[in-house]
Amino acid sequence: MMSTDRLLAFAAMSFLLIVVPGPSVLFVVGRALAQGRRAALTTVAGNTLGAYVLVVAVALGVGSVVERSIVVFTTLKLLGAAYLIYLGVRAIRQRGALRAAFRDEDAEAADGAGTLRTLWDGFAVGVANPKTIVFFAAVLPQFVDRGAGHAALQMLLLGLVFNAIAIASDSVWGLAAATARGWFARSPRRLAAIGGAGGLAMVGLGVTVAVTGRKE
After folding, report:
1. From residue 25, how far is each of 41, 125, 171 by CA, in Å?
2. Model pLDDT for residues 133-176, shown as the tens digit of each residue
3. pTM
4. Contact, 32 vs 171, CB < 8 A?
């Protein structure tokens, strides 16, 4: 249905986009430092689901609407930015609770509600990621072989390629950050500092997302 050369070309372009840290990667790293390996990988899963929703939207034709409509694109961008700022403010306010989170880590690992909340947070960031929205809307259709037919299925397949690369890359970022987390666990002051810094980073990221991107 699709040539190997076309798939490899798309994979190469996807890799170049993914390896440059954007909102999703920074969010995963922040979660890894604040909450550990489990939260980081759960966030990666949520991000992946959110990104694939964008793939499905493009495959169904919604992506062209986002690409051409300033209002729709800006609305999605601002919603994503607002959610990042909300998460950042919440992290700052709860930075003193990180020490208790370390003590209760095993109990939290069994907390299904907490896992679902983390998954949802990752999903929300993934589906509102301006970099991914623009990439899928503008680039994904260009790799479809119209002559082979089944354009929607081809885009869904390309989306799986993108997500497979994203899962591998984001997981490496998250696991590396989670490994560094042990150093912070030795000091309550370090824990509070990383909680505050992670929250400020998310707020800054939200502001950056809000003020960048298409304006015309």
Report:
1. 11, 10, 9
2. 777 876 777 787 777 778 788 889 999 999 999 999 999 988 98
3. 0.67
4. no
